[in-house]
Amino acid sequence: NKIKRYVLENEDYIFPEIIAVVENLSVVEVITGVVQLSVPAEAFRYLVDGQGRLGAIQALVNENPAYNCHTIDIKFVLSSGVAADAQLFADINSTQAGTNSSQYVATDSRESINNFIKVFVSQSPLLGDKITFERSSVTTSSSLKEVWSANQLRSFVLLATGLSPALAKSEFKSEERCSYWSGYFNAFFREIASRHADIDAVLSCSQDINQFRKESVIPTSVWLKSFGVVSKILMMHAIETKAPNIDWSILDGITNIDFSVKNPEWIGRCLSMQGKFEDRSYNHLAVAAYLLKGARISLPDVVVNAESKVQESRAQLQLEISR
Fold first, then answer.
1. CA separation (Å) from 251 to 192, 228, 255, 279, 294?
2. Which of 53, 149, 155, 276 could form a disulfide bond with 102, CB atoms 3.0-4.6 angstroms apart?
3. Residue 192, SS3?
4. pLDDT tens across 207-236, in order?
């Protein structure tokens, strides 16, 4: 249970209030400005919001009676009948707005990967002003000056390192490892920028980013995540060949790639037949396969399979067109 684990791992845990509907309650003023609220046990009807928290609390109390001494805020609402209570449930659960994923990265200090991202962005010469912590994503219709969101960069980091969110927690707790990854990512973006004028233009802000959003695949989430896959492949190649350093020449092939949306190679990789961007795991692998085409290195099976699927889909499409 995620809530139970949150409480166990954080002594300073905090819960939002639980909302309970009751049949009746009494309010008695004890002294001026202080009242005592009493709710008979049989008056309780149900929780409108807070079932998950209540389940976690029950599990904690069952395992450790010391949690009986802990408290939580409860808002009591006097029942106005079944229909009104149902509407209350609908109103509360339809209007709740959580913090978006990038804002969570910005404000959270518990997950070490989020701390790493904040420090990395603040110190990165190339990405420092390209990441927004206010939007969960930056889309092609955006007018922001930033290129990607903190949430999208977080996905890149996980793909580039090959770490699960759980393993990332321990990896980025180490200052030494944070320093290593920060240096590696800065070098990675510097290397790809040096190999293609359009990438350099986006990362150096030498041209209007809004124009690129209309004409290029570069300022998209799927492009960033696909290069996360490429980054991991570079790391894997260095490990497998026992090379002392990353062989950046593997990236030389991107110099001649057309990153404009008009390039038909993106169809079936990151663009649908209708020209809409697609941003799933398959798309990241299919784009990575194209980026590393002719790189003369052994690609992971998942990347090879994604390329095969792209070619099979195109062959099937050609067959249907010829009929």
1. 7, 13, 8, 22, 10
2. 149
3. helix
4. 788 888 889 999 999 999 999 999 999 999
